[in-house]
Amino acid sequence: MSSQLDWRRVYDFWFPMDLSRSGIAAHWQMMTWWFHGEAQAELRPFAPLVHAARAGGLDHWRATPQGRLSLIIVLDRFPRGLFAGTPQAYSSDPDALRIAEEGFGNGHYGALASPYEEFFYLLPLVHAEGPDHVDRMGRVVAIAERALAEAPEDLKPVWQFTLGQARTRFDIISRFGRFPHRNPVLGRASTPQELTYMAKDDFIHTRSLPVSASSAISAIG
User: Fold this and answer.
1) Which of 5, 75, 92, 173 is least enclosed by beta carbons within 10 angstroms?
2) Which of 58, 16, 57, 62 is nearest to 39 (CA)?
3) Using an 8 Å Cβ cutoff, are 170 and 178 in contact?
């Protein structure tokens, strides 16, 4: 199997439909699939790819923009579905960040064609903890603001939601320098301020989509 077909398997799985001419209901439907469990249930066959990527066996995917994006998805998104609740869920984040930053420098990010490709490409900047995390989150917020401004009027609620998510994460990292909800999983001691935050049980990664999203999805059956 060629290297292109290797990454294409991931790409076609993660982007199963072209949303460029779809209405807002289809966009919300895909957001639900990506982030609220449906996609995660189908990830098990991809576990060997995660292990291969972590060992550097898929580095050749970095030769093309979409191949690089597919590798980022394997390292960033797939572990969160396959290894939720364990340190493995986050252990690929530094590699995903390195690969994403490299693609900013060589033009691969700029060559991506769809806003959803760009969205998932940016996630390592959001997820990888580290000393430059606040700066990275600032970059993501700025890109999300631009995406909202450029979105068609009927799709603006989707991108308003993603901007809100980005701004909330920026606030969390600005306050704590890390994601406190990971502390129990990673065996980290929580500060009193983090304990107060976690006691509210209102974590950004578990929030539901807006009510308007459910209404739109219901309208298409």
Assistant:
1) 5
2) 16
3) no
Per-residue pLDDT tens over the stretch 151-195: 999 999 999 999 999 999 999 999 999 999 999 999 999 999 999
End-to-end CA distance of the chain: 38
List the structure tokens of 12: 């076609």
Total count of residues recorded for the chain = 221
Residues 6+ apart with CB under 8 A from 103: 62, 65, 68, 109, 121
Q: Is the pLDDT of residue 3 over 50?
A: yes
- 180: tokens are 């406190």
Asked if 82 and 104 touch (Cβ cutoff 8 Å), the reply is no
What domains appear along the chain, each with residue ranges and CATH number? 3-219 (1.25.40.10)
pTM attached to this predicted model: 0.92
> Which segments of 55-191 does DSSP mark as H helices, in order?
65-82, 93-106, 115-127, 133-150, 156-176, 183-186
Angstrom distance (rounded) from CA 106 to CA 119: 18
Q: Which residue has the tokens 């959001």?
A: 126
Query: If we measure between CA atoms, which residue out of 100, 82, 103 comes closest to residue 91?
Result: 82
